[in-house]
Design a protein that fits this description.
The structure is a homotetramer.
Chain A (H helix, E strand, L loop, with lengths): L7 H6 L2 H21 L7 H8 L4 H11 L2 H13 L12 H37 L4 E6 L2 E7 H26 L1 E2 L13 H11 L2 E2 L10 H28 L6 E2 L19 H14 L2 H6 L10 H30 L1 E2 L1 H8 L8 H10 L4 H17 L6 H7 L1 H4 L4 H7 L3 H4 L2 H9 L1
Parallel strand pairs in A: 3-4
Antiparallel strand pairs in A: 1-2, 5-6
């Protein structure tokens, strides 16, 4: 958790306070379940709910001695609950509490991340609709390709975030798991009904086979979903960084009054937010490999995953949460420059119509290969002139073209509307 | 693709022959669709289906000149199809073919991987049911914990593979995508109905927004699902390697007559298959980061992902396919040694009953902390004696215990059935 | 930085206080250099050294407005220095300060890590020499191979840490770099002599070409060295975890009085420190990929690396520092059990001598393949008997063996001294 | 190994033919050493050198039965050598051959990679010197910063590759290791003098402690050096891709006559080689994590590393070798466009001089903060006008500026030579 990239909403989920509160709830619900089946006396759960409490500093103190966090917590809880405390945690093992609580924290985090994705989606949808028909050049390989619209670009990113929403939801489902199965997962000392009861109360599902811990393939899948989402953020961020380049200038991050782009060069306005997001994406992705390495625990469990998760779980969740909010803000406030888009679109002297010319030649009976050569021959001259020579002029002057396409038809070909005719079709599919 | 870790079934999917066949199908179906909307003359599709063919060596030859694989393919295809060929690929861009075909290859691979997972699951289910009640020690941290059954262990791995089956199925759905949207994805030169038609014929769904390429977050998710599956294989492999250790000897990989464990030490029988699987898991996992790095392509697309996918796609699919089949074979033929399991279970002089003793003390009115200390005090003596001193004897001789638990009740506590009473419950949940 | 895995010595290096102090030193030395070449008036450096100061909270406050950390720092510094402050940072760009200071922090960290490695080496050397001739079984594939000594095992780990020491030293050299070259690295506004001067004062070397930032391939190499060191820690940790397994019990982590191994099972003594180190190794390794992804910055620099380094630099340094100290402590206090080592060594009924028997047969004129078969034939019987049948007895009774090796010679072969005769040779090479 | 990204020089190193030839050499030299110390009869080495041979297909056939590659090789070798063969491999274990041979292959690969790096360096040096004083804009964050020269850009990349050369050389040293220490590494069955002898003959150094295998931290370091080199390739590739963007057009990959940029858009010339190199860098990097995961082998060795290395070793070496040659070729043939560089440099109406103006104001007695505001105020107007309004004109008209800097001095400030005055200093440092 890097303070400057941390929102309190997410940080709170990963603070000891929240963790211990969940532990206490699990223990209290487990007592309720144990009372139902008469394993412990009536009244224990009530005592926990009414008098149960904990003190983080005190728990730390006890843990320093016993070197076991759950025992430290239970000892402290007993200091509040009193007599009835000896029935708390009956037949359970630490992992029953630890892993179920970890599930709850991941579930809470996923819910917050989903809100973040939805905010990005809302921003993208709004800006996409504003610029549904704003013409700009589509680029492949960084090279001008054919006309498209800025709205269509944003619609593509919207669709990617929508897929991420589904992935995080699926990851949340996958991790919304309760395991209360006792030592080595046999339910020898705790009846399966306790697990079912607690799961139900906590909004979780019981694990199929828990071997004391919840199997870590679930968590690996969870962090994979986060990493893909981070990469989708990177994709949009790289797009914006490209658009803000001095030579391109089609969009620009909001630049606050009073902001300084550079300590040395007062003229600078840099895309620092999306550069930052590019870096944050790398951080979130770095959780995936450790999460995968955590899967192969020894026998019924070892504890090597624990230190890993103390690092990656808060770090990946907090960083992705922050990144989503920042991404949304960037999109919401993005300065979009349609005039520059049009200027760039026209920069290459009409080359963007090259395919359409080729197709028209083909339809007029010229073999594809020959058509390609004719068009490329003219296009390269325009290319070399940096767009100063106009493609349309060259084509009109080329006898092989003129033979097949009358000048008036050529004029009609150089028409941007041709490229936007299906934008509404795509918008219907994405937003409809 | 490492030859010794390659099955022909999967390798074939990734051979040029299969790729070009899919390309040809896509082009042919696209022609059908174009004929329906009268963009190209009737009869082109028929010509492709009837005369269409390709020659891998010839394509290589053409590509060496034009430096573009799809153009090389189309040129070669035209050599077979003849006249009508000039209407093939009309209005399409290379990625329409490349990406849709790549989807098909990944889909075919996923189907084969699912069969592999199912074979592992079948093997695990069979062996789990055979050994449903075979007692063995459950271990946490590599240290004896409490009794469990070997069937329960295998049931846990079965459940993990079942989750992987669902993940690979979801990844297959996610990647079963067709994109035929033309240059920079505007459908300017190709009607959306072509995409819908081809998608339907090829068993795919159209991409929401394809910006010329199918967005790589889909592929990143695909390889993540493979990586998690590989890690689940590693988990089971590590379990078997542990069980085969000389000091443990609870299970052993099948050792073929004529096999040599070591060139130097003729007595050796090593778990080389599961060690190998542990390594193969690392290889499959190594595809995840490059796949994530592929997501942030520049603007409407760049081609940096292409070389990456030429490596990771066949490698990860072929390696995981091989690993699944080997994993299944290992489980099917695994030598399981119930006698050794029982010997190990009894090795620690009854310590495995320690929790139950503690719980009984608690239920008899001793505070949890005090009960823990009483039990630990006796347990450590047994531990130090390496199990030669019997835990039951010490407990009977401990006045604090004797006061609360009569000897006969203590005898009854030292009973393995206590730990297996819910095995059928779990089996019902997993296999029921 | 996870508090429980953090030592203050390392954490302090990464605190704002230390960072800003280094920034101030760089600025002060730069002023000295600028005064020498008369770019700024005499007395500025003196003013900075005498009145220069900073307040972390105040810097945060300013940064919240100007959104630029170096400008915020300089503004705050000026509040202390007064009039002369306007000559501070003259001609420099933020990265000159940021990157040079980051080098210093990494250098300081490397020095602390080297101390940690040396502590581990010292512990390993001491324990290795104590147990130079303590016999134990050497295992390949987890299966008993041939006798070795526990000292030799530890000597191997010592040699690995010694290599890591050299790697971290090389990484420190690689990163001990100063860059003061101004905007886009041209030295247009700051004379190269300033860089040379500051580098010399700070114990650094000037960067060859700095393009405003110090190229990130240096940092990638730095984190790679840390990751390899973490993996070497993992290797030793896995060894200890294996040795502590209940069935093996050849070594055990120190178990403090009052410690609790399990909340549920009072008999447990788990290798939690080395399990923890296994996890910490995964965390340290996770810094490598982001560090490699940081190398390809755009043009003369972008700032995507910054957020990454705010995470991985303190995290990897702090975690590895903690891990090294914990590793050293584990080795220093490790309970080593020579009796159990001998018991395990003898467990397989003499199979550990199989190679020597085979070699003797070969030297007696039997072809290698035939000798292998003869030995394997007898070995497998011992193997199946779990060591109850004695290998020596079987060999004596095997006519093909008896024909070539008299019984007395066979007896002489079953002698552990044969395997330890070169231990002193290796010790000389490693520790000599 | 992806055929299209493979050079035969490197592929041959990784073919079975080369591997078995090295195995044979190791065995022959080991025989020489064994003869010297009279462990085997004189004449065995001679027999191996004279009659020794192998047949890859036959080895495969034998391995299919014995499931052990070294035994299969030795069996085949014996078929050629005859009688004396039974003394070959005396006292050695498979890993002695496997690991030492693997070292040789990695050493050979490193030598080829070093040649590749040197070719890139030569190309960069030549082009850097050609364009030492070719003015272009330096960019930070993708935004115009200050003037620099194209030669200086290339010099920076040269310096990075030079560092990589040193890293690969160090990695080669680190891996030039011979281990012939017998089972579990005790030299019980093979005298240390054999190792020393073979190491010397093969140009290697003996391992300090080899525990049967050469410790994998060496290999992890090797692949890390390759990954950093790949990232440095990516860095230069990304630079070229940026420079080739349509709006930038300062450099362009060589475009062969007959080449087709796009099947759909005949006007395209895409930076496909550097995009490809960006992808290949991802592939090479993907070897690092598996190599790190290979370090923690169990006890004296397990074999999980083997399958990993069968994949990553040829793949990473072949891919990096190809990438270096392609990178060199791209630089050698790169079309560099000084006119466009100048056009872009002037695009922002003189804003690139902003820092120098600010510094002049400061030196004229204006506080840094005030100077920054004055300059930023004028710069933002130029920025908004997209460079149409000239910065120099605005400054002359700004009374706060005019008060401090006379117009003639302002004119003198707008001078590119100011930014190139130290280029020769840097060139001396880098190439001198």
């Amino acid at each position: 958790m890097i303070p400057r990239y941390t929102r309190q909403e997410m940080a709170k989920i990963w603070e000891p306070e929240n963790k211990y509160r969940i532990w206490m709830e699990i223990e209290a619900y487990a007592c309720e379940a144990q009372e139902i089946i008469d394993v412990i006396p009536k009244g224990v759960a009530k005592a926990v709910w009414e008098r149960g409490n904990f003190d983080v500093a005190r728990i730390d103190e006890i843990e320093a001695e016993v070197k076991h966090d759950v025992i430290a917590f239970l000892t402290n809880l007993a200091e509040y609950v009193g007599e009835e405390a000896r029935f708390v945690h009956q037949g359970m093992t630490s992992s029953d509490v630890l892993d179920t609580a970890f599930s709850v924290q991941l579930k809470q985090s996923a819910e917050l991340l989903e809100q973040g994705i939805e905010r990005v989606m809302a921003a993208l949808e709004k800006r996409a609709k504003e610029h549904m028909m704003t013409l700009c050049i589509g680029r492949s390989h960084g090279i001008h390709g054919e006309p498209t619209t800025f709205g269509l670009k944003l619609a593509g990113h919207y669709a990617a975030f929508k897929r991420c929403l589904a992935r995080v939801q699926a990851a949340r489902e996958e991790i919304s798991i309760c395991a209360i199965s006792g030592a080595v997962g046999t339910y020898a000392t705790v009846d399966p009904s306790v697990e079912t009861y607690v799961a139900d109360k906590m909004g979780l599902k019981p694990e199929d086979v828990s071997t004391q811990v919840i199997p870590r393939d679930r968590h690996a899948m969870f962090f994979s979903a986060l990493a893909v989402t981070a990469s989708v953020i990177e994709n949009l961020s790289v797009e914006i960084r490209h658009l803000q380049r001095t030579e391109v200038r089609e969009a620009e991050e909001f630049f606050a009054s009073g902001q300084k782009g550079s300590s040395a060069m007062p003229h600078k306005r840099n895309p620092i937010l999306t550069e930052n997001l590019t870096g944050l994406a790398r951080l979130v992705r770095s959780a995936v490999i450790p999460a995968l390495e955590n899967v192969a625990l020894w026998h019924e469990r070892d504890i090597s995953h624990s230190s890993v998760e103390r690092g990656i779980a808060p770090d990946a969740c907090v960083t992705l949460d922050f990144a989503l909010q920042r991404m949304a803000m960037v999109v919401e406030k993005l300065t979009i420059m349609p005039d520059n888009m049009m200027k760039n679109l026209e920069q290459m002297g009409g080359l963007v119509f090259s395919q359409r010319v080729m197709l028209t030649l083909t339809q007029a009976g010229i073999a594809r290969e020959a058509a390609y050569r004719i068009v490329q021959r003219n296009a390269m001259k325009v290319w070399e002139s940096e767009g100063k020579t106009k493609f349309l002029d060259l084509l009109k002057a080329d006898s092989e073209v003129a033979e097949k396409i009358p000048a008036s038809e050529l004029d009609a070909i150089f028409n941007y509307a041709y490229y936007t005719k299906n934008v509404d079709y795509v918008f219907d599919r994405v937003f409809g």
